[in-house]
Amino acid sequence: MSQTIEQADMHSFLKTDLMYLNLGPSHPASHGTLRTLVAMDGESIVAGVSEIGYLHRGFEKSVEAGTWNQGIPYTDRLNYCSAIMNNVGLAKAIEGFMGIEITERCRYMRIILSELSRIIDHLVCNAANFVDMGALTNYWYLYNQREFVYDFLAKLTGARLTNSFTRVGGMYHDFYEGWEADLEDVVSKCEQGILDSMGLVKTNRIVHDRTMGVCAISAEDALSYGFTGPCLRSTGVAYDLRKDAPYYGYDEFDFDIPVGSHGDIYDRIMVRYEECFESMKIIRQAVKRIPGGPVNVEDGRFFLPKKSEVYDNIESLMNHFKLIFEGIKSPVGEMYDSTEAANGELGFYIVSDGGGRPYKIKVRPPCFYMMQAYPHMIEGGMVADAVINLGSLNIIAGELDR
């Protein structure tokens, strides 16, 4: 009854008949299982309300049930377009909490794989966004390059999408022999694909009309909503944890932070394009500098012994058994740590009671905060604008799960 009265009040206030339309949750343009109810005056959106909660993975509760390392596969399902970056984020937070110092080779390996993951995340974001816009050719220029990266990751990790490749204290294993040439080939193909796509859209009048000045957000509003990553940088705010709170030695690399000026869909697209080129610069520098040595810490309190030692040595067998079944013993306390993931700041708040598994892990995914601004951004636009705005924010439903 109250809903009917509210709608009647809205009708009398606007002096028009409104049409109510569901965008999602079961629609390919919703980029996941999320729903936005919009009130429309003709072609224009007058108001919108977003609803999440259609995806029930229970990430935070599930992580409590396993050991510290057993939580890593769950992170693959947060932003599944750049799974390794989520692996690295959780492993880094746990290592910081436990005071584990990873090796130099591991540090470089994580940088290389994280930046490669950033590239494929931006590729799929822009590719899908152009499909929503009707510019299908760009999809093949960008998405095919992503497949080359997946071939490389499959050869390295054994999995294409959900890699689960990091471990607390290191990585599952080192690079394979000849990886440098394979990686350079993949990066070069991505570079060419992006250049081909940019040649189609950078000065395209239709793309400009559809994206310039559309669903713009100011720097002040973006900050107040909790924006981070490319969407914040598109407003002109050059905030990037790799520069502002450097980790893994990112301050030793030569790269720039691309920024926009209007915070509209066009800026969000172009910032992601430019960030791909910056990630390529970092990867090429890291490949030249990566040192030799072990990729994992050699400390039985944190990392599994070599399989050959487990078969031949009773102490190694016992150590292996205790780490698998009881987990790494952690100090009592709590800590927050974050990394610059593809969509922005990915943080983990860890609470430990001193056992071999977390008492609580609270995740701070970038999409969860940006989604709250979406209804505000689409008001005054049309349904077609709302669809490509969602794509330009790169909302990943796995990060909205609670």
UniProtKB/TrEMBL annotation:
Enzyme Commission code: 7.1.1.-
Coarse class of the protein's main subcellular location: membrane
Membrane-protein topology: Peripheral membrane protein
Keyword Transcription regulation: no
Top-rank taxon, per record: Bacteria
UniProt similarity note: Belongs to the complex I 49 kDa subunit family.
Protein name: NADH-quinone oxidoreductase subunit D
Organism whose genome encodes this protein: Desulfurispirillum indicum (strain ATCC BAA-1389 / DSM 22839 / S5)
